[in-house]
Structures are given as structure tokens and as C-alpha cells.
Amino acid sequence: MKTASRHTADVDIHGYMQDVGRRARAAARIISRAETAAKNNALLAMAAEIERESGTLLDANKMDLDAGNNQGLDDALLDRLELNDSRIKAMSEGLRQIALLPDPVGEITDLNYRPSGIQVGRMRVPLGVIGIIFESRPNVTADAAGLCLKSGNATILRGGSEAIHSNRAIAACIQSGLKQTRLPEDAVQMIETTDRAAVGELIRMKEFVDVIVPRGGKSLIERISDEATIPVIKHLHGVCHVYIDDKADRDKAVKIAFNAKTQRYGTCNTMETLLVAQGIAGKILPALGEMYQEAGVELRGCEATRRILPGIKSATEEDWYTEYLAPILSIRLVKNAEEAIDHIAKYGSAHTDSIVTEDITCARRFLREVDSSSVMVNASTRFADGFEYGLGAEIGISTDKLHARGPVGLEGLTSVKFIVLGDGHIRK
Amino acid sequence: MKTASRHTADVDIHGYMQDVGRRARAAARIISRAETAAKNNALLAMAAEIERESGTLLDANKMDLDAGNNQGLDDALLDRLELNDSRIKAMSEGLRQIALLPDPVGEITDLNYRPSGIQVGRMRVPLGVIGIIFESRPNVTADAAGLCLKSGNATILRGGSEAIHSNRAIAACIQSGLKQTRLPEDAVQMIETTDRAAVGELIRMKEFVDVIVPRGGKSLIERISDEATIPVIKHLHGVCHVYIDDKADRDKAVKIAFNAKTQRYGTCNTMETLLVAQGIAGKILPALGEMYQEAGVELRGCEATRRILPGIKSATEEDWYTEYLAPILSIRLVKNAEEAIDHIAKYGSAHTDSIVTEDITCARRFLREVDSSSVMVNASTRFADGFEYGLGAEIGISTDKLHARGPVGLEGLTSVKFIVLGDGHIRK
After folding, report:
1. A193 lies within 8 A of chain B by CB
2. Which of A256, A403, A417 sits opposite B406 (nearest CB)?
3. Residue A121 pairs with which residues in a beta bridge?
């Protein structure tokens, strides 16, 4: 990419990053007013380029995989690092889907006349420059660049050093797409150096970067949000709950509790703790416990749970706080919805929590009182996802309260400003 | 207030603040689900209490004013510190107006069926615990407490030490209102100690405080946002512009440019720099310059301006960046709207900027491209205000891009979570 040839990054990381920042800021002004068609054409051109260059991408990826193997990276990491035909196809399809989404930029809402005679409304606007810091998965390069471009932002990407060849190859396709449609190439820049100091610069360049989106493990995100002086859209972790109320429909409860745990183990919206009302536990847990055990899920229960499922391990205090991301589930019996809500408030991570109940009063209360980014009734926590919610794609799931909560799609990458229309109006 | 009697704040600020935080967090859960009528009744009871206790408030305020006089506080500060009958009336009226505003909490929007069969929508929810740090103006106590309460948040208030007696007296009225309506008294707490270490604790109690709103001068706000580890809704400063396009209506231009500067000098939405298209400057500036000079406004111009208004001072590069908050105005001639937009991007503070033009193409471009929290056409920048915008009241004007931009009313003190309604739905 452009930045590589011009700088000896190792020598002067600060100067290099300042230059990246300055150019991103300049590109942001142009991209913020780009027409929707231009942005969509660029996305389609990128998608085509990624498919055309799939051989190059696979070669580059092989270099990363070989290096990773030599360094003894674990299998999970190597799996995330790997590109193959279907993953390349998914990248280009992702870009095409983003092209199909409505353009959020410039949307005017709530434009109303005020008593003074002025009209006041809101216009949706890009955030400006977005810094994306991510680990291993090279497909993030395409997803993130696509979402930021469509939402009118300039992007600075910083991928993991283990994926550097793959990321460069994907970035070259993105650049080619921008070039073909005459959008500024600086609208998407990838940091060329793998020096960690570049991250330190990126998260403190207040004058050039408006928001940081880290994508990766909890430790990466914690480190970045501790050190950043720029706002960070955080996705920390998901300790998600399903609460089976004593007014639950038994079949729905079993189906949802099983799906929320076992449909995928490694995702943030997977249930980690099952809460069951005492009144219904005896009717639900024996069958459900058997299903889990057949699926290879290790169960850890409170004392009351273990009276119903005598064979299982005892859950410790630590278990209630834990995001296993693995075939392990903690189970606790509670008196009622109130106790379930209290448990979630204390141990949960404000990600996604679901109640199974046929009682509308109880459902309304749970919806209102559980303070999580997604709160559900009679549905699996696994639905907490940008695609499932109709946001089209997501750059992450925010567990913050300010700005964006839950799946962050195009709208989460924008802000709103006030617009005022008058006809010579002055303040009295 | 409650906190005072229980603690020797001077001895253990950390322990004291932790206790304040813990109690705020507990109160936040209760206040977040309080019924609208309960919150409104509390606001009305507070208003009545403030009027009933106006004598007490004036006595307490006299103590602060006397102390301020003895310490030699300047007149502007003493003016901000002063309570009088009309300011007390304004406080209670403010609370009554907040009671009349619609309750934002629990509002559900965009509830739609998805292809999977689940319904996905958004519910507006309180932020949790809000820390307000403010200087001198004691009326902020009532405004801030009222807005936070109506939006379902618990509040921790920290006023300036120069207003401590006034703030305590107002806080007692607020407490009395909460007590009369059986809402938790901890929903509004005032920090009793004037020790600065308490602020340091407040802005770092991540587990107990969700957002900090500093209200005061730029230096206070910069210090707090530099040191805070909790998100801050910032209002830094307003370097606001009016751009008079060459297609402007002359009368509107003169009226707006005069009003934007002179209607009040000390407010953040006052124009600080006037930009005039070269093609119209000769027709506008002579008359307008005379009006400013009659009003006692000191003018500082670029060279081209000084050829039209020869008597005025020369503006320095520094002037274009300056928020005067005083009867001083810098004036610059520009070629066209594009150059005006560039000037605003470089020197402005992204607060409020207005164009005067009859040309709709030019107006549309200005609205879209100027990246400020309020962008106006043919209206005075002085309209950038929560009341004028119909937000009811404001806790400040945010110059941030994330979360809240522009005047921050009830909505800016809330967030949205996703809600999902199913009927036993699981993810395939």
C-alpha cells in the first residue's frame, strides 16, 4: 500500500503514524460527502478484485500459516488465520451485501418547526476516521473496510502481525477497488509496520482519529481501552444467561436452552449460565441435562441443581462470572424472575440475556429491568448478531452503554448532528 | 444530606466516595424502573420545596457570596454564584418543565419481524449513574438533578466549593422531594467534601459511575477528560461561524450576523468569526461594521476586510482559533462557500456554524459538509440551545462526536438496548 514505499517505518514510528493520520483525516472529508453510488461501486469493485485475486490471497495466506506453524501457534489461532475458497467467497459476498444496504449518511429525521419559526432536525453523519485494531482473522480487513467506507468514514487498519501477508494482499484488493472508482486511496490505509509502538500512536492521535474499534480477545480490548485517549467502542465479553421461568413452556425452554449453549461454543452470544426457577427445575433439568451430556457439555451446578442432577460438578463463585467459550455450562436454581434478574445484574456482562416464560407480566419486567445490550423473550441468545437483527453486517458487538450498544452496524459508525433551517431568523 | 452525617470525609475520601458510588448504583436500579408518575411527582415536589425554602436558599447563598467577596472573586464569578428571586423561580420552573416532558425511558422503536420469525426492536434505557461536576452556578444542582432523575438515572453531584452552602440548601430541597414521593434518596447525592481528591475518585469509579458530565470552563473540562477513565460527555468550547455567501439576502445577513454576535457575548453559541464572500463584502460590511462598532464590538479583520473597514485591527492567526466570549469579532473574506467550509474545518470547534444564502445548492452543500454539532441555514447561531430545539432543557452542549452531539437533553442521558421477542425461536 502507499504508506509502505514512502517511509522507513521502523525508524520513525511517530512520524509515520502522524502521516497516516493526516492523510486519513484529509480522505475522511472527501469520503464523507462521496455519493452513495460511488461508495457502492467501490465495494463491488473490491469484491470482484478479491475473487479475481483469490490465488494471490491464498499464496499470501500460506506464508502466514507456514510462519505460524513454525512459531508453534495453537490450532484455534491457525484456524482463525486460515483463508480458503469459502472464506474468500464470504469476504466478497460480505462486501456486496454492504453495497446493498441503505446509505445511512445524510439521512434527515425529526425535522420539525419550532415556535420560533426555525426548523430543527437531525442529520446522520460519519464519525470521521476510525481505527480498527484486530487479531488473526484476515477477513476482518475486508469487513471493516467495507462497513467504514459505506458509512462515509476513513479507516486505519492495524491487523495482527501473524496475518500480515494475508492482510496486505486483501488491502491491495481494497486499494484497487478505490482506485477503479476514483475514491481517495487514503480512505482505507493499512499500517505497514508490525511494530507495537504503532498501536500506541494510533490510540492517542486525537487530532486524526475519532474512534477506535478493537476486535479480538478480552485482554487486547482491555489493554487498548486502558491506554487509549480516543473513545473506544468496546466489545469485552459475553457472560450470557437464559432464565427458565416457572411459567415457561417446557418444550420451548429445552429447545432454547440447548440451542443457546450448543449451536456454537466459541461465540460471545453463547449462553454460559442457565438459571432455572425452582418450581420448574424438576420438570426440565433431567431431560435437558441428559441432552447436554450427550452433546459433551460439562455441567457445573449449584447445590440445588446437583440434587436434581447428582452426577455433575459443583459450580464455584468464579464460575458465575466466567465466559467459557467452550462446552461447559454453569446452572443455578433461583426462586423467581427477581432473583434471576439480580443474578444477571451481579454476574453478567450486560451482553445478551433471555427469559423463557409464557407470563407476559414477567416478560415485560425482564425486558425492562435487565440492563444488557440485548434482552430477549423466548428466543435463543445466539440471535444477538448484526445479520440476524437486520443491520446487514456488524463491526462488533458493543458492551458499552454510550453511543452504540449491542451489534454495531453502519449506524453505529455514524453520529447525528442538528440542522437548523431558517429564513433570516434571529434569537430574541 | 445523608452522606454527611455518616462519614468523616476528610479522613478517608476513597472510602467515602466508594460508599457514595455503591449507593448510587443501588439507587440507579430502582430509579431506572420507577414509574413516570413517581418521577414527575418528585420533580413537582422539589419545585415546590425550592419555592417554599427560598428564604433559606437566599441565606445560604449570602454566605457563599460573602465568602466570595472576602476571597476577592471577580464580578463575573460572583454574578454566576448569585441566587435571587428570579433565579430561584427559574429553578423551580425548570423542574416543572422537566416534569412535563415525555418520559424517554422504556420507549420501544423499530420493532420489526425478521425473516427468522423473531421480532427485533430497540428500547430506550437510562445510562445508570451520572456524575456531574460543575462550577459556581448553583442552579445547575436543580437542573442536572431534574434531568437525570427524569431520564431514570442516579446522580452524583459535585459543585464548586465557592457555592457549597447554596448547593447544600438546594440539595436539601431535592432530597425532600424524593422523600415525599418515596423515591430512593440516594438517587441524587451531593458530594459533601470540598476536597479535590473526591473529583479524582469520582472520575475513576468505573464500577459505580457510567458517565461524567463536566459543566464549566474549558480548563476544567480538559482536565477532567484527560484524567477520567469513565466516558465524559464534553462541552469544550464554541468557535462559531456565520458565513455570508455572495447569494445572501443582504437584510437577513446583516440581521443574523449582528444577532449571532451581540445578543449575548458570553455564551458558547455566540459567533466568534464572521466569514464573508468577497463578492458581497462591499455591500454588507460597511453598514454591519458600523452597527458592531456602535454596539461596542471590537473588530479584527484580515487584510481584505481592512480594505473595506480601514479603521479596524488586524486579525492574527491566533484570532481564528479564539473563543472570545466577549465583544470582539474576527472577520475574514473568503472566495466562496468552499473556502468558508475549509476555514471552519481548520479553525472551528465543531460547535455551531451558519450560512446565509438564498442559493439552495450552496445551502445543501454547507449542511452536509460542515462537520459541526449544529449546522444552520439563514438562522442565528444563538439558536443552538436545548430549549430552542425543543429538547426541553439541556445538561450541556456536547462537542463530542460519539453518543451525544449538540444540546444534550433527556435523550442524551439515555441509551438504547435491543429487545428480541420470540416464541421458542432458536438459531439454525
Report:
1. no
2. A417
3. A419
pLDDT tens, residue by residue, B218-247: 888 888 988 898 889 988 789 999 999 999
B360–chain A Cβ distance below 8 A for any pair? no
Phi then psi dihedrals of residue A285, to 5 deg: -65, -40
> How far apart, in whole angstroms, are the C-alpha atoms of residue A290 and residue A286?
6
Q: Please name the residue of chain B whose CA is at the shortest distance from the CA of residue A416.
A: B405
pTM: 0.90
Q: pLDDT tens digits for B165-215?
A: 999 999 999 999 999 999 999 999 999 888 989 999 999 999 999 999 998
Measured in angstroms, the CA of B65 and the nearest CA of chain A are apart by 31
What lies within 8 Å, CB to CB, of B368 at 6+ separation is: A33, A106, A123
The Cα–Cα gap between A291 and B349 comes to 60
Calpha distance B131→B211 (Å, rounded): 6
Q: Chain B neighbours among A 334-353 (CB < 8 Å)?
A: 345
Instruction: Give the closest of A380, A390, A424 to B427, CB-based.
Output: A380
- CB-CB under 8 Å, A106 with B420: no
Cβ-nearest to A375 among B249, B383, B419: B419
The residue of chain B with its CA nearest to that of A30 is B369
Which residues 32-51 on chain A approach chain B with CB closer than 8 angstroms?
32-33
A30 touches chain B (CB under 8 A): no
For B386-407, b/e burial (b = at least 16 CB within 10 A) is: bbbbbbbbbbbbbbbbbbbbbb
> Quick one: how far is CA A421 from the chain centroid?
37
- Cβ distance B371 to B400 under 8 Å? no
H-type alpha helices, B229-325: 250-262, 278-294, 303-308, 317-320
Average pLDDT (A420-424) is 96
Q: Are B136 and B162 in contact (CB under 8 A)?
A: yes
Q: Please tell me whether residue A410 adopts helix, strand or coil conformation.
A: coil
How close A20 comes to chain B (CA, Å)? 18
Q: Which three cell numbers stand for residue B387?
A: 430549549
State the cell numbers at A164. Answer: 500480515
Distance CA A250, CA A244 (A): 9
